[in-house]
């Protein structure tokens, strides 16, 4: 009998492969992206000490107030702009992009492009 792995298990395996390749440092932290069916989350993490330096999500009231929906490409682009602005306020200019095992298209790509346009380098 053929059994098929769930999409969640496949995504977790892809994410572990990505995480084995690179990690965030104090000079160049990791921009981690996670998307659920209803929301998107972005964090900038220093993996050497395990601290989240900056975080933003579509759950936050000030972000949610600016959006019509929290799970579309426009919401992802706005979240990318917000996370980049918060990072630049903290003095973070360059990051390593961690797509979290998700395919680089649609919402994930929109978040990355908006963060680049707002001044983050990766």
Distance between the termini: 44 Å
Summed up, the helix count is 4
Uncertain parts: none
Taking the sheet with the most strands, its summary is:
4 strands, mixed
Instruction: Determine the strand fraction and express it as a percent band.
Output: 15-25%
**Which term fits the overall shape?**
globular
Count of distinct strands: 4
* Percent of residues in helices: 25-40%
Helix-strand sequence = HEEEHHEH
Strand order of the largest sheet: 3-2-1-4
Name the structural class.
Answer: alpha+beta
Characterise the protein shown here.
This protein is α+β, with helices and mostly antiparallel strands. It has 4 helices and 4 strands, in the order αβββααβα. The protein has a 4-stranded mixed sheet.
In short:
30% of the residues are buried.
Supply database-style keywords.
122 residues, alpha+beta, four-stranded mixed sheet, 4 helices, globular
Structural topology:
Elements lengths: L6 H15 L8 E6 L4 E7 L4 E7 L3 H5 L7 H17 L6 E3 L8 H11 L5
Parallel strand pairs: 1-4
Antiparallel strand pairs: 1-2, 2-3
């Amino acid at each position: 009998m053929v059994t098929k792995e769930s999409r969640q298990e496949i995504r977790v395996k892809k994410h572990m492969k990505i995480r084995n390749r690179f990690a965030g440092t104090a000079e160049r932290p990791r921009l981690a992206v996670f998307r659920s069916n209803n929301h998107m989350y972005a964090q900038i993490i220093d993996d050497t000490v395990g601290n989240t330096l900056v975080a933003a999500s579509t759950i936050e009231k000030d972000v949610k107030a600016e959006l019509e929906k929290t799970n579309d490409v426009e919401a992802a682009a706005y979240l990318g702009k917000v996370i980049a602005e918060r990072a630049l306020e903290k003095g973070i200019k360059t990051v390593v992009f961690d797509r979290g095992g998700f395919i680089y298209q649609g919402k994930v790509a929109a978040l990355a492009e908006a963060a680049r346009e707002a001044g983050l380098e990766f």
